[in-house]
Specification:
This protein is α+β, with helices and mostly antiparallel strands. It contains twelve helices and 18 strands. A hairpin with a 5-residue loop joins β1 and β2. It comes from Parazoarcus communis.
Amino acid sequence: MNDRLPTAGASASGLAIDGSRLWQSLMDLAQLGATAKGGVCRLALTELDGKARDLFAAWCRAEGCSIRIDQIGNIFARRAGTRDDLPAIATGSHIDTQPTGGKFDGNYGVMAGLEVIRTLNQHNIRTEAPVEVCVWTNEEGSRFVPVMMGSGVYVDAFTLDHALTRADHDGITVAKALADIGYAGDAPASVSAGAPRFGAYFEAHIEQGPVLEDADTTIGVVTGALGQRWYDVTVTGMESHAGPTPMRLRKDALFAATHLMQKVVEIALAHQPDGRGTVGCVHVYPNSRNVIPGKVSFTVDFRHGNDDGLLAMDAALRAAAELLQKDFPVAVAVEQVVYFEPVAFAPELVDAIRDGAERAGCSHLDIVSGAGHDAVYVAGTAPTAMIFVPCKDGISHNEIEDADPEHLAAGANVLLHAMLARAGTVS
């Protein structure tokens, strides 16, 4: 881990965040759930998550912010504007982690938002619209499903009751876990129930991929997010003894399934530059050394920048499954289990981020997010955009996840000025 502290970067207007303070906040937060390998294990709504929430809230109250907690546990730290009737200009992310998570995924977006508020206070800058920093509940989905739970409830992607009744492997529900850590709030959790809409929402994040580092570029101007279609595929043959059964008489489900798995990659390669295809989980039955596999179940993850591309990939997968049944003595079932619509972020906010990077003298390129983020949900209710900064070797969801302090400071500076442009300053 790089332990040097960054210097505050300069912007066109001369106003800049304190990079050293941002870095220290990230390091302090990372102590809650710190792992021996230098990462963080802080699953959603655990005692450690509660302590991290308490720390964030205490930091925000010290800056004069009010705190609102909604019924799904989302936290909104609000710095008042001179016109509090205006919708807030918001930023944020999440502070729950993967079991073997890093210091920056999600946490950077929240701490960058806190640093924006600290900078405004330090320089006595008043904004016309209020500014809010959000902590969204259970973004990672490691303990509770669905992922991006807090922002999903906020935009009515699923109901509050559905979310509160989800249980972890020990049978503990979201409702009980929220109560146990003191974050079962009473504010409306969804826009339909009266939760306020934002005037604009920005989310700063490490890229979680290798594109920016490969291009030696500091700022990713995120124009949108890839759509996703996930599938459960089952190939059924017949298990039989590996010795007495001749090769020509076998109904080998695994042998057939491997052909379809390779097709997943071929389909993605045929839909570049945005096409993605992954087989991430495979179950073989009966999984015995000397038994010909009778059934294989595996997952498929398709992603693309537009729905036409996703639908073409879907059609190619189903056609390949049909052909497999003709070429091999097996049955194939393909079931779509998840669909996330491709998202295009608000052009005016994307332009503001691009312009801010140029004014700050930061190298930048347009990029599409390949991962899901809370911003993807929020974009359905308010103008939204994201700022990416590089992470070392493109590694995330890993204890060795790392980022350059200067890149983190640069991204926070772009965030600061993008938010100020929307919130308006008062002389």
